[in-house]
Design a protein that fits this description.
single chain, 202 residues, alpha/beta, 3-stranded mixed sheet, 6 helices, 16% strand
Length: 202
């Protein structure tokens, strides 16, 4: 393709920038065999503040930013040109829901989660990976595992861990970008279902 894959240079680049990072979202899911469709770019999560970059000079990287990189949930493995850091399965799942606009929307996220769920185990997540996101994101994650994917076992674990964090759940909108007027609310997850999620066959 005439381009150097970002995984070849990302470790050295981020060391030079003095930033923590990890391969994230759809690119991380692909590393678990759960991309469904091969991502067109490499999605990389790093710390705020945002830095200047040019998509015209390098359109192979989709930069995402968060306040802190939770290094305890970041894995490393040898790549073609040294090591590369990537989110573990549970952080990948949480991030996909939290940054769903960057992952192709909720239907795309649910389709990827359908494949990723074989690698996820949310036991202890209430004191662990769930603390990297908002309670609302965890509610949305649980709703998708439960009502969309029908994964009762993992949904139960997510729910139990969620209650250890916040026993009085407040209603949240499934898609904050859409109106929630007059929509039904899922009572278990307190999610206002204002978007119809469709999962592609996997």
């Amino acid at each position: 393709m005439g381009k150097v894959p970002p995984a070849y240079y990302m470790e050295e680049l981020m060391k030079w920038l003095g930033r923590h990072y990890y391969i994230a979202l759809l690119s991380a899911a692909e590393m678990f065999g759960a991309a469904h469709q091969k991502p067109m770019v490499t999605q990389v999560m790093t710390e705020l503040p945002c830095f200047n970059y040019s998509k015209k000079k390098n359109d192979s990287v989709d930069w995402q930013f968060r306040s802190r990189v939770p290094s305890q949930f970041v894995l490393r493995r040898n790549g073609e040109n040294g090591q590369v850091a990537y989110s573990n399965a549970e952080l990948t799942a949480v991030d996909l829901v939290r940054y769903f606009y960057s992952a192709g929307g909720l239907s795309s996220v649910a389709t990827v989660l359908a494949e990723l769920r074989e690698a996820t185990d949310f036991s202890g997540a209430g004191q662990g990976v769930f603390t990297t996101a908002d309670i609302a994101d965890v509610q949305r994650l649980g709703y998708i595992y439960d009502a969309i994917l029908g994964d009762c076992a993992q949904a139960e674990t997510i729910h139990d861990e969620l209650l250890t964090m916040h026993r009085d759940l407040k209603p949240v909108v499934l898609d904050p970008g859409l109106s929630s007027d007059g929509v039904e609310i899922n009572r278990r997850w307190k999610v206002k279902v204002n978007h119809e999620i469709e999962v592609d066959e996997v």
